[in-house]
Amino acid sequence: QAVYDGHQPEYPGDFTSVEQTVSKITDYLKSRGYPRLDAAYGCSLGGACLTRLLALGAIPIGRAIIDGGITPYQLPLLTRKALLLRDILSFRLVAGNRNILEAAFPPERFTLPGHDPVKEYNAIAAYLKTYSGKTIRNIFWSGNNYSLPQSPAGIDTKITYWYGDDEKKDRKSNIRFIKGYFPQARIHGIPKMAHAELVMIHPEEFIRYADKFLEEGIPSGAGGGGAGAQAQTHYGNRPERRVRQCQQIFRELQKTLRRYPPPSIGPGQRKRQSSHKASEAEKRRKGLSQNGKVPK
Asked: Looking only at Cα atoms, what is the longest distance across the chain?
């Protein structure tokens, strides 16, 4: 199984919590003889899981990219419950109405080059309807309220937190939390990108940013110290092999994310994503409808 519970129609079951997911990931890796990871990437809800994985320290990680990762609310319980209702309603509106889906995520912006936007959005609309009510609730509640130890485990992981410039306001509290919880983390804004847009829509740019982070500080030859010394743990004096393998993993990750897009995007994010292209999307939708290409 390549994705979380409740996210893949072929596998029955509901998403339960970030805590359970991280526990299953940890057990899976240890049972297969992986006591550490050279690199890890998590986007949105996956970023929440990576944050907890790092905090617990049960699986040491050399480098970690938290991309638009969700962090626990620091708010009163009643406020968090009200935000849960808002998020569930917002998701149901997007999942249940094709016009709202296209206004929130304009096809011109969120379709890969060379792909048919009508087929892509037909598939997305159908996929969003596969989420159970329990999964939707648990994604938004656990993703925003998962538990962390008061202080993270003592780790020497090199951490970067990415966010798209178009989602900067939505990620403000997440960025503040990461800065305080992981003092070593570096914050990096990606120009002209919305939530999860880099990894899902711009594979070449994603690889370029990932390459830069993975290769930073690794010596080109044998020997050296710091991050390069960590890279040699598994591969002897060939840290470049580590980089290549991580790059291949990230490419496979992109394929999975294209098939199972993350659902946890708040209404404020959707407004910013669509504001500058809503009119173009509406014109295009009407044009396609006249040609009979968009189902009612």
From this structure: 65
Q: CB count, 10 Å around CB of 198?
A: 25
Write down the pTM of the prediction. Answer: 0.76
Contact indicator for 61, 37 with CB cutoff of 8 Å: yes
For residue 196, the cross-strand partners are none
Alpha carbon of 236 to those of 13, 34, 202, 222, 242: distances in Å? 42, 17, 33, 9, 10
CB atoms within 10 A of CB 183: 9
Three-state DSSP class for residue 148: coil
Contact yes or no for 23/30 (Cβ under 8 A): no
Element (H, E) at 37: strand 37-43
Please choose, from the candidates 183, 187, 192, 186, the residue with its C-alpha nearest in 3D space to the C-alpha of residue 165: 192
Two structure tokens written together for 17: 């919590």
For 206-232, write each residue's pLDDT tens digit: 999 999 999 887 655 433 333 333 333
Tokens matching residue 282: 């509406």
Both tokens of 258, joined, read 């294209």
Distance between CA atoms of 228 and 237, rounded to whole angstroms?
A: 9
Q: Residue 275, Cβ neighbours under 10 Å: how many?
A: 12
- For the segment 110-145, what is each residue's pLDDT rounded down to a tens digit? 998 889 999 999 999 999 999 999 999 999 999 999
Cα–Cα distance for residue pair 125/116, rounded to 1 Å = 14
Contact between 222 and 280 (Cβ < 8 Å): no
